[in-house]
Write a structure and sequence with these properties.
The protein is α+β, with helices and mostly antiparallel strands and 163 residues long. It is built from five helices and eight strands; from the N terminus they run E-H-E-E-E-E-H-E-H-E-H-H-E.
Length: 163
């Protein structure tokens, strides 16, 4: 079954000095988000990570420990393949630390060649046809994206979707 999920990670899921500072800077517990494409063996995670940039990573039942503290929403099947196509075309872009920091301070900036996590997830979802607020992706923080999606989609457990 090809479901598109989105996951939001609290700093508490991997509590260290880096995640604590991120939570403080964002003024919220939610510090990261990823899209999950469930039609792969293993399921693929898509986001932008500091150090590696935009791309895919595998997830499986064996490495669920890190993901057990996340909040997941099922975005359905309707836009799965469109979102996957868009994500594949964004692979290899850089991580935009500057814009991530500026956005957390309420400042608007934009880098067309690099993205932070909620910016890339917002872009993929918006471009795939999901109705979201008409705002610049570069100002959307992870917890703000969750607030946009929460009323529209059911909260689920990722373990139920892992193959």
């Amino acid at each position: 079954m090809a479901n598109l999920l989105i996951g939001f990670r609290s700093y508490k899921a991997k509590k260290n000095i880096e995640t604590t500072l991120m939570s403080w800077g964002l003024n919220h517990d939610t510090i990261h988000c990823e899209l999950f494409f469930t039609d792969y063996l293993p399921t693929q995670r898509f986001s932008s990570w500091n150090g590696t940039g935009v791309g895919f990573r595998s997830v499986s039942k064996e490495n669920m420990g890190k993901l057990s503290e996340w909040t997941f929403y099922d975005l359905g099947q309707d836009r799965y393949y469109q979102a996957l196509y868009i994500a594949q075309n964004l692979q290899g872009k850089g991580y935009d630390l500057k814009t991530a920091i500026m956005s957390s301070m309420g400042l608007i900036t934009n880098n067309e060649d690099a993205y932070f996590c909620s910016e890339i997830c917002f872009n993929v979802l918006f471009e795939s046809g999901l109705t979201l607020l008409p705002v610049k992706a570069s100002i959307v923080l992870p917890h703000e994206l969750e607030i946009m999606l929460q009323p529209q989609f059911p909260q689920v457990q990722l373990i139920d979707y892992i193959q």
